[in-house]
Design a protein that fits this description.
globular, binds zinc ion
Amino acid sequence: MTTEATRPLPTCFICGASLRVSITHSKKGKVAVALTCPTDGRHLRAFCNHRPFVEEVVARVETDEAALQKHSKTQAGEEDEG
Ligand SMILES: [Zn+2]
């Protein structure tokens, strides 16, 4: 278990699993943050007219997830170089 200072990810209101955050669009082209439950696939969409806000939310969450995956990968084994 890591005790690094990481922002808490939003969790499912029903089962408490960490929600997957992605960007989505309405039919009218408005941007929205989609919060998807990994357990049952249900999702919420949070619309916001301020596109930079939505993009930053997604960028931050994706960075956190990428960092986590990178960590687990580097721990798993050696990397091929050359
Ligand atoms: Zn859930």
